[in-house]
Specification:
globular, binds flavin-adenine dinucleotide, Elongation Factor Tu (Ef-tu), domain 3, Rossmann fold, alpha/beta, 6 helices, 229 residues
Length: 229
Amino acid sequence: MICKMIIKAPEVASTAKTGQFVNLYPESKSTLLPRPISISEIGEDTITLVYGVVGEGTREFSKLTAGDTIRVSTPLGNGYNVQKEAKVSVLVGGGIGVPPLVELAKQIPGEKIAVLGFRDDPFLVETLENLGVKVYIATDSGRVGFKGNVIDCIKAEGISGDYFYSCGPKVMLRALAAYCESVNTPVQVSLEERMGCGYGACVGCVCKTKAQNEKGYEQKKYVKMDQSF
Ligand SMILES: Cc1cc2nc3c(=O)[nH]c(=O)nc-3n(C[C@H](O)[C@H](O)[C@H](O)COP(=O)(O)OP(=O)(O)OC[C@H]3O[C@@H](n4cnc5c(N)ncnc54)[C@H](O)[C@@H]3O)c2cc1C
């Protein structure tokens, strides 16, 4: 089940950058750690999150109703560096990596193409189309759109652009980075890890980059403590 949650959080909305995420804190004592969810849309005083219900934490969130409160962190992660000069941007998303592409699509100028990969059931397609994005869908089952992965879809449809952005499973990001290198087109990928605190303190969420391979992991920059709404 895919759910959408709009949270009134003026301080979060005013500082959030496209591609960042927030940590949501479940009330249940059995869920010790916060649950990271990408910011799908940034409003004037709200943030919109779109998430799949997969376990106890997301099940608890899905039961909240309008007017309930939830603890949410400040925006975390680095976010995308929006390239204003690109004429055609290609947004590539896989599964739960699709939600942050919505705010990105709002913020990038020029022509926008999205290539979205899902196991079976697509979501957020209409939202992106309503923003003027030309959407291609690839599903593992072939029930909707192209049967296969996003890279094969890009090749089969002859999709190209001046700049690629992506969010999704690491295996997809790796394949897309290799593809973009082969066609000499820059790509920005949003890396994420299963995480603990989310602030860089426990070093659970760090991703090793090629540049950091020799130096070891680098901690994310410190982000101020979370706040309740
Ligand atoms: C930076 C970041 C951004 C994210 N953004 C989104 C988003 O926008 N929408 C969304 O639906 N999900 C997103 N996720 C994944 C989301 O955090 C997990 O699905 C959620 O924490 C699961 O919590 P739970 O208590 O419901 O499930 P749990 O009981 O903790 O886990 C249930 C199942 O989900 C798997 N799972 C849990 N966390 C992850 C994870 N991070 N990646 C892959 N599998 C996981 C577990 O292995 C287990 O099989 C994001 C994760 C990260 C790290």
